[in-house]
Specification:
Helices cover 80% and strands 0% of the residues. It has 106 residues and is mainly α. The protein starts with a helix and ends with a helix. The mean pLDDT is 88.
């Protein structure tokens, strides 16, 4: 009886080891598929980045070929405005009128 028992235990251990090995292999295959998918995504992103960098370099080339204004500041135009003397005369007239009104009200 003991001989059959040890053989049965050994068979159960072998079955469990085989099942565990199969699960590990299946898990490995799943991970390998995920890695392949990620590598494909990375390659696609690399291609997209290359296309964008080519497009950016073309745009930069066009921008640098376009004429641009000089880097110095433009000349400041002379001030255009009304002369200040009419304001000064108007202020003097208002002050004289206020003086006369206050003198009259006193």
């Amino acid at each position: 009886m003991k001989r059959w028992f040890y053989a049965l235990v050994a068979l159960a251990v072998l079955v469990l080891l085989g099942w565990g090995g199969y699960r590990a292999y299946a898990s490995y295959q799943g991970l390998a598929a995920r890695v392949a998918l990620l590598e494909a995504k990375v390659r696609a992103q690399e291609e997209a980045l290359r296309a964008l960098s080519d497009r950016l370099s073309r745009v930069e080339g066009e921008v640098f070929k376009a004429p641009s204004p000089p880097l110095s500041l433009p000349e400041v135009p002379p001030p255009q405005g009304a002369p200040a003397w009419p304001y000064a005369v108007g202020l003097l007239v208002v002050l004289v009128l206020l003086y006369l009104v206050f003198r009259l009200l006193r």
